């Protein structure tokens, strides 16, 4: 049997509160509480009589150091009807819990633990009501209604979740909220839904079952009419009855086909099925005129011109102003922008997305102070046998329609041979007709975007591009000389393919520093990367330098460059080595060496696999020109 009554009994003065269960007599609870008070006073008197004469002047009602002055305990009181009182002293108030003291040896222990739990919860209520352990009768009287209702709930049994809900609302203005909102607290903590929230589901199921049980499904009238006509055609001819005929034998019922076609359908199929439809001249005109067919097309309202203002991106490695596109306001760090991957080529690189590339001259004419370390041989970036005008002039066909192309940038960072972070971003550009050919007309067309399953986020320039959902986009803008950015997007790290894998190995032994870069191309590329430049940032300006193969040193920037004309798809990894003496000894700490790589591609396919398609198959309102992708922050540390 659990706790039968809870009482608040101060050390000095009358009892503050007594709560009992509905079926437990209040008189018996009062008798047990009074017996506890008498026992406490009796023990206090006996202790004072045996003390010294200086302590005899103290009040009999004082706590003193009697046995019941301990923080908690239990006491069996009563003569005929014995009760077990579990008490706990909080400052100057005893919190009492009353239960029966039966003859069973196991029951007292069970009751004592159950009552002790209820007493501890009552202590929490009193401490919360008094806002601390400084519990006094005056503070309890100020919050008497809240304490009364809370102890009533505790007496009937509450869990820890419901108790925390009671303690949180004990200083609120609404008492009904504390009582009525508590029963669902434990259910919400367990994640269960209360019955009023799911009762309508059961009612809907019963209503659906009754509705379907009484529903009847009939065939259409046309099908019934066709079946009746078929049955009338195959009915046997009737004869005149003379009275001498034997009674007809009951023939086996012939199964009729209710879905058989009538004579009207068999004899004149065109008239029955087509129904004499005539061609509509207006419909033919609409089909012939695409503008009339798209007359009802709703285009999203364009925002004002202020929406085209450039947005500054402050993420490390991607700083700059991006005009007219909303890129969001997330101030993510570089570590958050890149997510770590262990699989270097796990981004889903498709070999069919690449064709042959055109080699470009990557000679950096802006860098001064270059020194050729190898005296023999041709310069590494010399294009032998190629006329100068072919390197500087690119032939371009005449523009006949708006052109779309995609420019992508791949960023990656390797730590030794492990890929630490990777990011792929791209921009879709529109090149309109020249002003002299546009003749003041707006450029307007629709296109479809495919291969966007790995896209992480995308931002549209809403004053030029509208999203028609399901991968369809509509463009409407005036003609401009410069390419217009329509959309900027970024890909998930796991869907970002890597064209090249790098590894930087450095050894600092004494005053000699050795550096080696190993590189390998993605074997899924259809054609090797060409005109690739590897750069190593040196910690010092070397006085002596030994490199293999030949390289170019920029003393002003402390850079060492290798130009690789072509990287094979398969085969052993390439190696670039450099060795130099340094002033710092290896015992004083490691020197920082950073490797970088620069490459570019231009062709009809993208690195991410995104494809531009016409909105309608076979009807292209734009031309898709060469896409590009290049390396951004491609590092190896």
Automatic annotation (TrEMBL):
Where do the MHD domain residues begin and end? 399-637
UniProt cross-references to PROSITE patterns, sorted A to Z: MHD
InterPro entries referenced in this protein's UniProt entry, alphabetically: AP2_Mu_C_sf, MHD, Muniscin_C
Q: Please state the span of the N-terminal signal peptide per the UniProt entry.
A: none
Q: What is this protein called?
A: MHD domain-containing protein
Organism field: Sorghum bicolor (Sorghum)
């Amino acid at each position: 049997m659990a706790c039968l009554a809870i009482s608040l009994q101060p050390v000095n003065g009358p009892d503050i509160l007594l709560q009992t269960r509905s079926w437990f007599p209040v008189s018996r609870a009062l008798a047990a509480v009074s017996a506890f008070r008498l026992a406490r006073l009796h023990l206090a008197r006996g202790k004072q009589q045996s003390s010294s004469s200086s302590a005899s002047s103290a009040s009999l009602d004082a706590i003193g150091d009697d046995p019941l002055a301990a923080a908690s305990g239990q006491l069996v009181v009563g003569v005929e009807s014995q009760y077990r009182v579990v008490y706990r002293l909080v400052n100057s108030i005893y919190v009492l819990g009353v239960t029966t003291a039966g003859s069973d040896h196991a029951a007292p222990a069970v009751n004592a633990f159950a009552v002790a739990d209820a007493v501890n919860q009552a202590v929490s209520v009193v401490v919360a009501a008094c806002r601390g352990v400084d519990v006094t009768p005056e503070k309890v009287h100020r919050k008497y209604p809240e304490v009364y209702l809370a102890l009533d709930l505790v007496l009937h049994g509450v869990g820890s979740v419901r108790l925390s809900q009671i303690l949180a609302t004990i200083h609120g203005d609404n008492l009904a909220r504390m009582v009525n909102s508590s029963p669902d607290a434990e259910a919400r903590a367990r994640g269960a839904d209360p019955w009023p929230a799911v009762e309508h589901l059961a009612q809907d199921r019963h209503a659906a079952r009754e509705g379907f049980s009484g529903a009847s499904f009939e065939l259409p009238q046309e099908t019934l009419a066709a079946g009746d006509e078929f049955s009338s055609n195959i009915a046997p001819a009737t004869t005149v009855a003379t009275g001498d005929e034997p009674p007809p034998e009951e023939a086996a019922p012939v199964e009729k086909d209710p879905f058989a076609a009538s004579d009207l359908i068999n004899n004149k199929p065109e008239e029955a099925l087509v129904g004499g439809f005539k061609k509509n001249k207006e419909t033919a005109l609409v089909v012939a005129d695409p503008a009339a067919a798209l007359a009802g097309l709703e285009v999203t309202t364009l925002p004002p011109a202020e929406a085209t203002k450039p947005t500054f991106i402050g993420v490390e490695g991607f700083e700059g102003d991006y005009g007219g596109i909303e890129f969001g306001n997330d101030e993510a760090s570089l570590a958050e922008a890149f997510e770590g991957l262990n699989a270097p080529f796990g981004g889903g690189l498709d070999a069919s997305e690449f064709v042959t590339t055109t080699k470009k001259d990557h000679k950096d004419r802006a860098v001064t102070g270059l020194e050729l370390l190898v005296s023999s041989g041709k310069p590494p970036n010399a294009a032998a046998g190629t006329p100068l005008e072919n390197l500087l002039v690119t032939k371009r066909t005449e523009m006949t329609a708006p052109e779309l192309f995609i420019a992508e940038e791949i960023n990656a960072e390797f730590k030794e041979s492990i890929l630490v972070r990777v990011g792929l971003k791209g921009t879709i550009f529109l090149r309109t007709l020249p002003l002299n050919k546009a003749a003041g007309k707006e450029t307007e067309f629709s296109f479809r975007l495919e291969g966007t399953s790995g896209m992480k986020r995308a931002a549209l320039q809403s004053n030029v591009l509208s999203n028609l959902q399901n991968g369809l986009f509509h463009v409407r803008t005036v003609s401009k000389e410069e390419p217009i950015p329509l959309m900027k997007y970024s890909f998930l790290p796991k869907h970002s393919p890597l064209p090249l894998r790098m590894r930087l190995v450095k050894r600092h032994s004494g005053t000699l520093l050795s550096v080696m870069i190993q590189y390998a191309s993605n074997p899924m590329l259809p054609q090797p990367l060409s005109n690739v430049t590897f750069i190593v940032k040196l910690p010092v300006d070397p006085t002596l330098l030994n490199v293999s193969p030949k390289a170019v040193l920029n003393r002003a920037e402390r850079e060492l460059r290798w130009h690789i004309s072509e990287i094979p798809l398969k085969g052993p990894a390439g190696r670039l080595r450099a060795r130099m003496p340094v002033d710092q000894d290896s015992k004083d700490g490691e020197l920082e060496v950073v490797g970088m790589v620069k490459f570019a591609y231009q062709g009809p396919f993208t690195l991410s696999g995104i494809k531009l398609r016409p909105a309608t198959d076979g009807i292209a309102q734009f031309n898709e020109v060469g896409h590009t992708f290049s390396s951004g922050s491609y590092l190896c540390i």
